[in-house]
Amino acid sequence: MDADPTEIRQYHYGTLQEQGYFSRFLWRCAGADEQLLVQCPQSDRVKYEGLGGIVLATGVLSFLSGSYAFYTVFSPKLDTALGSGQQFHMPSAVVAVLCGLVWSAIIFNIERFIVSSSGKGDGTEKITLSEIGNALPRIIMGAIIGVTLSAPLEIRILESEINAKLQEEQIEYKTRLNSTFEAAFEVKKTELTGKIADAQARLDQIDADLEMRRQEINAQRQKLEDEAEGRSGSGKPGRGPAYLDKKANLDSKQAELEYDKSKAADRVNAINDELAIWKAELTASASELEQRRADNERQSHALDGLLKRIQISHEIGGAVPKMIAALLMCIELGPIFFKMMLTRGVYEVLVETQGMLVRAQAGIDGETRDDVGHLRSSYRSHAYDAIVEEHRRRADTERHLAELVHEQFRRIRGDELRADPLSFIADEPAAPRSPSSEG
Question: Which residues pair with 365 in a beta bridge?
């Protein structure tokens, strides 16, 4: 049977439920209207799936980049960059993943807004200066996001080289800090060691003096014994005058030695007190030096932050960081320029038509401008016009009724005046009656 030539062929592209979940998810990522896209040809669907895929890729990259950056910030710095103490820290990883999810959600939402609000250009593949000017704020935002996302990724890609360079700088930094404190410690150590040596020399001198006098007394005692046994002097044994003189001299020297020992003991105690103070100060200085070395060790380990790694990556990376930043900027700015190059398709027509239908249902009409700024007339609301017209007609009705009332009042009073003119001439003029009192 031949088909009716006047019959319009209906194309069926499927329902929203017939589309795959991932395709609809990509449409949402691109900020597109699913209900309209399902009515469009496959070419329009693919375009917005591609846009949504770029937005989704940006969100995934922001999650990876942000998680690695937050882990670098929160992970404990227990060793140098290549030290055995640098181990995976699970609590920091959990915090970094949570922060990365929040960060990626923020970037995803911003990117989705940028893409969905970029317009559709002038409907041709050509990118004009006017389009670039209109999209300049979004281009700047996308460039900032691209540079921000590229930094953690570049330090992860160059991690091995960065760790090697960072290890050298950490050791050099620790050595420089230690040398400052070690020089000060050596000066103080030399001073204290000199004081301790001088005090020890005085103690040795006191001991030497007392020992020499003790030996002299022992020698005198030996001579006294020789005198008593007759081995010296007259050669006669006994305790004669010579013995008694030597005995008195010996007792005198022994008494002087005991007296000097008591005096020397006070000096020795004072010197020992000084020695104890200086030795304690030297020990404290050595302990402080060890504490400073430990602090310097930890301080050198802390030289492992995100900023330092980015700085090293720029120093040793050459063109690699710039290429990574350029790649991320291409991913970020690609959807904006892509939408400038989009030709006017079925989806764009449906979006405009839907806007027109919504305005019509709300009682609003008017023309629109295109994206290059061609003239668009202002919108007009029929509902607003209807309300204004209703108030105008109500005011006209009230004014017309008031005129009728006054006209009737004038007629009645005129008839009364013509029927009895004298009643209106009196000494006390009667109060005028209201129209409502006329019966």
Answer: 380
Kindly give the parts of the chain with pLDDT less than 70.
1-18, 84-86, 118-124, 220, 223-247, 363, 365-382, 384, 426-439
310 neighbors 36 (Cβ within 8 angstroms): no
What does the pLDDT read at residue 230? 61
Provide the residue type at 297 as one letter: E
Find, among 33, 24, 10, 117, the residue nearest to 351 by Cα.
Answer: 33
197 class by beta-carbon count within 10 Å (0-12 exposed, 13-18 middle, 19+ buried):
exposed
Residues 6+ apart with CB under 8 A from 72: 152, 155, 304, 305, 306, 309
Residue 224: partners with Cβ closer than 8 Å, 6 or more residues away: 243, 246, 247, 250
Please give the Cα distance from 350 to 354 (Å, whole number). Answer: 6
Distance CA 125, CA 54 (A): 20
- Whole-model pTM: value is 0.61
Q: Where are the beta strands (DSSP E) in 269-333?
A: none
* Res 4: pLDDT: 47
DSSP 241-271: HHHHHHHHHHHHHHHHHHHHHHHHHHHHHHH
User: Would you call 128 helix, strand, or coil by DSSP?
Assistant: coil
Question: Residue 5 has what pLDDT?
Answer: 43
Dihedral class, residue 11 (left if φ above 0, else alpha if ψ from -120 to 50, else beta): beta
The H-assigned helical ranges of 20-128 are 21-29, 34-37, 42-74, 90-116
pLDDT of residue 121: 59
All residues at 6 or more sequence positions from 62 whose CB lies less than 8 Å from its CB, including other chains: 100, 103, 104, 107, 108, 145, 149
